Amino acid sequence: MKLKLIDLLIILAYLIIVVSIGFFVMRRAGKNIKSYFLGENTMPWWLLGVANASSMFDITGTMWSVYILFVYGLKAVWLPWMWPTFNQVFLMIYLSIWIRRSNVITGAEWITTRFGEEKGGELSRISVVIFALISVIGFLSYAFKGIGKFAAVFLPWDLSPDMYAIILMSITTIYVITGGMYSVVLTDLLQFSIMTVAAIFIGIIAIDKVSPAQIAAIVPNGWHDLFFGWKLNLDWSQVLPSVNQRIALDGWNLFTIVFMMMLFKGFLVSMAGPSPNYDMQRVLATRTPKESALMSGIVSVCLAPRWIMVTSITVLALVFFMPQLSAMGTNLDFEMILPYVVNNFIPTGLLGLLLAGLLAAFMSTFDATVNAGASYIVNDIYKRYINPKGSDKQFVTMSYIASVVLVVIGMIAGFYAENINTAMQFIVSGLWGGYTAPNFLKWYWWRFNGYGFFWGMISGIAAALLMPLLFPSVIALYTFPFIFFVSLIVSIVASYLTPPEKDEILKAFYSSVRPWGFWKPVHEMVVRENPNFNENKNFKRDMVNVVVGIVWQLMLVLIPVYLVLEQMNGLMISITILVTTSLFLKLNWYNKLEEN
Description:
Blueprint: H1 5-24, H2 26-29, H3 33-38, H4 45-55, H5 59-72, H6 87-100, H7 107-115, H8 119-154, H9 161-209, H10 212-218, H11 242-250, H12 255-272, H13 278-285, H14 289-302, H15 304-320, H16 322-327, H17 337-345, H18 350-386, H19 392-415, H20 417-444, H21 450-470, H22 476-496, H23 503-513, H24 520-529, H25 539-565, H26 568-588
Helix pairs in contact: 1-9, 1-18, 4-9, 4-13, 4-14, 4-18, 5-15, 6-12, 6-13, 6-14, 6-25, 7-8, 8-9, 8-18, 8-19, 8-20, 8-21, 9-15, 9-18, 9-19, 12-20, 12-22, 13-14, 15-17, 15-25, 18-19, 20-21, 20-22, 21-22, 23-24, 25-26
């Protein structure tokens, strides 16, 4: 790609600014590990929320969203539920509050507050550390390949993708190491601002260049329909026949079953709480439990501009890129949509801003992952087992080293990503498959213990690893119930075969976190010692707010989509529902948030 001088200067200025931020906050971040990894719990909730949203504004996820919107039309807004995206609603309504009350630094340290420090608790903590670190390394290896391929297409110098990846990951690592959480959050704010401005400009271009009539003339019947029947009923044979093969390959033609599975999996995964990554770290970095809930709430709002960008890229490709896609035959490459749109529709100046924004999308996810991963090495391995009496300076120095080590390992894995792709996919899917049941039980059942957590994780991971081998043609979403129930049964059996956690551990956890669920024996013990203790009776209210919150979040996706598509009826209905659900949540959630 031939970039003009002004575009190159914009990209260079952005890279200089983000590195400078790291050095600017270096002294403040280096006071101690709580400052380095949590910003001393002094940063405002809205800043952490914007940073969290920025970390989710990644290139790969954006291009996947373009693909599903192109192929599935309005029904694509449901598909992110398979992650599930509405886990942010559960965090907003109640889980962030429960997590923040622990006053710890990492997710693994949080496990100790639930299961104690004896053998069962230690096994549980170690399993979480392993989960976190393998997830981080797995992400970094694929980020290496992804950013290299992106840079090789868009940046003008004749370098290999691997060399581009090394350069860009090294630049990002500099400000992550120097500034810790402070630099991560401040640069994420800058990155989010750039991406939002770029998204708005692309939206203006798409609305100017593409009319609703042009879209309607290209897409198949049902593309504009949000709701669905038993089957998907999208037939691309008259427009782009090879898309039908992609739909069959995805395995989502029986859309009602897919939707039900997404809800089943989504609610369980969401109720299990966040995985031990940057999402949990941002919750733990807030000043109060109330602010942790507000932080999680603003994430959904901040992700709305992403859908302006996604929809704009999609409609420009539908109208202008169709001949090139048709020429590909059965080898459709939807990753070529972004280069096409950038080359043909983005003017000089804005092009530099957009490319800086896309680099920012990568760097924002990368920096948050490295910082969160290093926190586990320092706090849960080095401080706990190697040097528990170390000084603040030693812990911060080890934080620098841990960040570099993670990046280097991620780069090495990235060099071999093509060879280890299948194995790494097994590991990552296995980790996630084994995570849900034990992490669900830890919140809501008093009798669940550290041994149950550990063996539940191990059995779930093993079941998830076996699924692709035993049933290679079954999509991962359909294997979730089996993995979940295997892990659930093992978790329960292991808990009953071993002693419950000590009363003091259970009482301390229950009285500080104050979860609802099956805690009656522990509640009775706490009340005997403290008759003024207030039981959490908010289960029904929380669940109602979760359902309303999911509808609210869905409108934040639909509004930008309808806006770019210029579907005024859908836009007005979505705005009305958003206002209604916002008022409901104001009265039934925000007004009832506890201050402490």
